[in-house]
Amino acid sequence: MRKNKSITVLIQLGKRLLPLAALLLLTGCWDSDEVNSLAIVTSAGVDRTKDGAIELILEIVAPQQLSGTGQSSGLKGGKGTTIVRYAIGDTAADAKGRLQWKLSRTIYWGQLQVLIVGEALARDGFLEQLDYLVRVNEIRLRVMPFVARGKVRDFFDSPFLLEQTKAGFLQSEAARVFHKPLTISRLIQRMSSDEDAAILPFINVREGRANKGGEPYIKGYAVFNRGRMVGTLTGNSFLAAKWVTNQLKNDVETVNVGNESPAQVTYTTLSAKSRLIPIRKNGEWQMNIRIESEINMIQNTSRLPMADPQNARLLEAAAAEHIREVVTQTVRDTQHMHADIFAFGEAIKRRNPHEWSRLEPQWNRFYPEMDFRVEASVKLRRIGMNSIPLGRQHKEHTKP
Predict the structure, then answer these.
(1) 167 within 8 A of 82, measured Cβ to Cβ
(2) Coil, helix or strand for 235?
């Protein structure tokens, strides 16, 4: 009898508590911030001033109004409207604190997409300032870092006519130029590796032309050694670095085929793959760089019809020789910088960890003198719609 009475009491108590539990579920997160109270950051820049201080520049999505009403919609990027704010402090964290004083909303890093480092700070070393950003829980490790030529503020003052935000512009630019854009996570891994060398996309910025046209663009790579920028790779060196790191994407190159004039053929790369193969030769380590690619001819100014297999082989040989030359020169340039950006040491470590333990202490001296060899093979896959060059006279290709 007592047992039935207890069950009845529990059932009645449960009926009374059920509505209260439902209300608790509808209350939401009690400690969350409303969107209307946040200053959402999409891109950030850090630079060093002339007096040695740190400048922090943030691109913030601007608040917009709901159409047809007078109520605020919070921070919304519907039209891509953003505002840029900056502050100067002793460190990046100090500058962030000073910038927060100037804003009525709380700085929110959760939507940060790109980080731009000024050239002066990059050459002086920016890992100490990066330390603050990687400690912020809101920041994702897939943020893409860049180095800007000159001052970061010049980049934020430059136009970006084809994109709505600076972050959107750099993301589109990186997707266009690279097969797989670099992230902060990968940068930290490279900076923390045994070689302690890395590369970052180098942005060309025209100083003092904020309102005179000329969008910034990715000009090449900034080369880092021991946390400091020691040089750049541009032009053919930029392409060569992309060859070795498997970052080539729709790049256009031109080579000379044959001895007659004109003899230039322009092509784009359909696919490319490179491998690092360390070997021991005469008791010393040497690196073989093997590059395989397939190309698509897009213009033929020579008098050679590429539908002829013999002429196609001439083009393939010329393209392969071009790759060997530019890659060889670029690797030598990195050796002069004492920057193992292609991870030769990592390849040796994978091949023979025991030998690497002996080589590692003297790697900074061994790498600049390390012997290497570049092997390249090219296959022509497409020649376009015309088998005969348009520049060739009709009577030339009608002869038997």
Answers:
(1) no
(2) coil
Q: What's the helix, strand, coil split of the chain in %, to 5?
A: 35, 30, 35
pLDDT digits (tens, 9 = 90+) for 283-293: 889 999 999 99
DSSP character at residue 377 = E
The percent of residues above 90 in pLDDT, for the chain, comes to 50
Q: To which H or E segment does residue 187 belong?
A: helix 184-191
Helices (H) and strands (E) in the chain, counts: 13, 15
Contacts of 399 (CB under 8 A, 6+ apart): none
45 and 122 in contact (C-beta within 8 Å)?
no
CA atoms of 228 and 256, how far apart (whole Å): 38
pLDDT the model gives residue 296: 93
Task: Sketch the domain layout of the chain as residue ranges.
Answer: 34-65+73-233, 235-400
Instruction: Measure the CA–CA gap between 134 and 130, rounded to whole angstroms.
Output: 6
* pTM, 2 dp: 0.81
Radius of gyration of the chain (CA): 29
Predicted confidence (pLDDT) at residue 161 exceeds the cutoff of 70:
no
CA distance 220 to 211: 24
- C-alpha of 266 from chain center: 26
When the candidates are 3.30.43.10, 1.20.1250.20, 2.40.30.20, 3.30.300.210, the CATH number that belongs to 235-400 is 3.30.300.210
Q: How confident is the model at residue 30 (pLDDT cuts 50, 70, 90)?
A: very low
**Residues pairing with 42 in the sheet:** none
